[in-house]
């Protein structure tokens, strides 16, 4: 099954089509996992209705696939799910900003992927486009609705704080390559949550590490 197989299906019936369910269920089969990730990721980017449908299934993916993969160190599954979940959020940041339980299941799952102690940064890097698009969307709320933007920022403060902590921890392992990533996220966090002094210490730590590395 390829994404092109869905081209002849009317958009109105795509979300409930048996073919979509077949591809989703194929994630649980190791031999078809990679192809299922590829097809689903492409569908998410092509069809506006798909992110909403799949967001409701993220909890299932986390419990059935992601958590066992994290426990066993299966980087293939972790990497694939990180890319797929990031694409769901990136395609529809407004859905995530609604702060539904499903939205926080997705952010929690991605934070788990970022925190996974992989030897390289490929998994963490694959999620950064989502985090930046979500932060940009939340910042854009300031223009349209002040009070709503404030409430959204409060709800997502723990998420971005945890993201900054995870990236800062990872940067200590591979600092010379990825400190700039943590720096970008730090600035996003301070811009989103300027009144939260809890974020100042991670940024100070990062700056200190950067100076020490330069002086070596």
Rounded to an integer in angstroms, the radius of gyration calculated over CA atoms is: 18 Å
Helix vs. strand class: mainly alpha
Percent helix range: over 70%
Query: Can you count the beta strands?
Result: 0
Beta percentage is under 5%
Provide the residue-averaged pLDDT: 79
Distance between the termini: 53 Å
Tell me the number of helical segments per DSSP (H or I, 4 or more residues long): 13
Low-pLDDT residue intervals, each spanning 5 or more residues: none
Largest sheet: none
The dominant shape is globular
Could you give the order of the helices and strands?
HHHHHHHHHHHHH
* Number of spatially distinct domains: 2
Which terms summarize this structure?
216 residues; 2 domains; 13 helices; single chain; mainly alpha
Report what the structure shows.
The chain has about 220 residues and is an all-alpha fold. It has 13 helices and no strands. The protein folds into 2 domains: about 160 residues; about 40 residues, no CATH class. It is about 75% helix and about 0% strand. Helix 6 packs across helix 8.
Any chance you could write out the topology, listing elements then pairs?
Elements: H1 11-14, H2 18-25, H3 33-46, H4 50-55, H5 58-72, H6 75-91, H7 93-97, H8 101-115, H9 122-125, H10 128-144, H11 146-171, H12 175-192, H13 200-215
């Amino acid at each position: 099954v390829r994404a092109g197989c869905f081209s002849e299906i009317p958009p109105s019936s795509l979300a409930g089509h048996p073919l979509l369910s077949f591809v989703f269920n194929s994630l649980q089969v190791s031999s078809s996992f990679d192809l299922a990730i590829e097809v689903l990721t492409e569908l998410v980017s092509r069809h506006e209705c798909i992110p909403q449908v799949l967001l409701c299934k993220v909890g299932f993916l986390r419990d059935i696939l992601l958590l066992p993969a994290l426990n066993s160190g299966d980087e293939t599954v972790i990497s694939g799910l990180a890319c797929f979940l990031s694409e769901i959020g990136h395609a529809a940041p407004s859905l995530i900003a609604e702060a539904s339980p499903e939205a926080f299941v997705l952010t929690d799952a991605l934070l788990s992927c970022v925190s996974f102690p992989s030897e390289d940064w490929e998994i963490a890097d694959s999620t950064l486009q989502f985090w930046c698009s979500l932060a940009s969307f939340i910042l854009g709320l300031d223009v349209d609705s002040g009070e709503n933007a404030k409430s959204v920022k409060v709800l997502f403060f723990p998420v971005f704080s945890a993201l900054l902590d995870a990236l800062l921890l990872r940067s200590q392992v591979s600092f010379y390559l990825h400190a700039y990533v943590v720096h970008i996220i730090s600035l996003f966090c301070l811009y989103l949550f300027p009144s939260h002094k809890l974020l100042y210490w991670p940024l100070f730590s990062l700056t200190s590490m950067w100076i020490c590395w330069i002086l070596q």
